[in-house]
Each structure stands twice: as C-alpha cells, then as structure tokens.
Design goal:
The N and C termini lie far apart (62 Å). The chain contains nine helices and no strands. Helix 1 crosses helix 3, helix 3 runs parallel beside helix 7 and helix 8 runs antiparallel to helix 9.
Length: 186
C-alpha cells in the first residue's frame, strides 16, 4: 500500500520526535533504530525509507531538535534563564536541552552530526548575543552570550549529575543568580 507524501512527512516527524526523546534520555549508543521505530509506532523496515543509516538519523535528529529550540521565543532572556535553570527542565531529560544532553556524545559522531551540533551552539550564541545587544560593543555582548550559555549548559549538566537534590537545586539557583549579577554589573 502506497503511503501519501503527507503521511511520509508525518511519519518522519514521529521518528525524529521519538529519536530526540530517547537520545536525550540515554545517549546515541544506548538507543537502537528498532527502539526508535517502535516508539514512533512504525516498523523497523520503514526506517530506510526515511534515513540512510543511524548516523543519518542522529544528524537529522540533532537538526530537528536545534530547529525546535530556535523556534521557541521566550518573553525575555531572564524568562529563558529561569525556565532553563529550573527543576522542571532538569528533571525532564527526554524533552530538555539537546546541547546539555548530547554535546559530548555528538563529539563522537560522524562529521555531519558534529557539524549540526556545532551549528546549533553557534546559533544559540548568536541568539543570546542579539538579546544582549544593549551592550556598548558587539564584542562585549558576544562574550557575555558565550559565558551565559556556557554557564547555563554546564549548570544543567552538573545539576543532573548529582544525587543530592538540595545541591542540584542550589547549582541551578546559584547559576541563575550569578548570571543576573553579571548582567546587572554589565
């Protein structure tokens, strides 16, 4: 039975969504193509109608996640920082930040996967730089953007890595305070 172009696109979106969630939860190597397809409600045999390999799926998923992230427009940079450095985000690994969940894994992937992650980081830095454009110089805005994004991603990784919930919450809160303090002095 022939599948319509619209249904093929919908199936592809389901695959990318399922892969994105599983990859963020467990990393690239711990997730099989069969598992992704099952989670998407599709058969393993349909995979190659959408992707040439698991490496292709990884690169396409990273691109999909980056596009989704860049489409979300927070009300303000402060609102974005609050949402990003929240216990809700920390505890929702499968739907959280792909950079925090997958950056170190992406480094070990094919050239395309690494390129997609690199482009996503550069895009996020540019987004922050634009949000900080009130600085006296573009160089100052970019430096603060890089520092802010790096602190946020690092804090989320650390908050997820500790078993002590009080320490995890403290990492998130202290990083938010540190970012705000730096911005108020800038």
């Amino acid at each position: 039975m022939k599948v319509s172009r619209e249904q093929m696109q919908a199936n592809r979106q389901r695959i990318l969504d399922a892969a994105g969630e599983r990859f963020r939860e467990r990393g690239f190597e711990a997730v099989s193509v069969s598992e992704v397809m099952k989670a998407a409600g599709l058969t393993h045999g349909g995979f190659y109608g959408h992707f040439s390999s698991k490496d292709d799926l990884i690169a396409e998923t990273l691109s999909h996640l980056a596009d989704q992230s860049l489409q979300r427009r927070p009300a303000s940079l402060d609102a974005y920082v609050d949402d990003y450095l929240s216990p809700r985000h920390r505890d929702n690994l499968g739907r959280g930040c792909a950079t925090a969940a997958l950056a170190s894994d992406a480094r070990r992937q094919s050239g395309e996967g690494r390129t997609v992650m690199s482009d996503a980081v550069a895009s996020q830095i540019a987004r922050f730089t634009d949000a900080l454009s009130t600085h006296d110089s573009a160089e100052d805005a970019r430096r603060e953007a890089i520092g802010t994004w790096s602190a946020m991603v690092g804090a989320l990784i650390l908050a997820r890595s500790v078993e002590d919930e009080a320490l995890s919450d403290e990492i998130l809160t202290s990083t938010k305070d540190w970012i705000r303090q730096g911005r108020s002095q800038g």
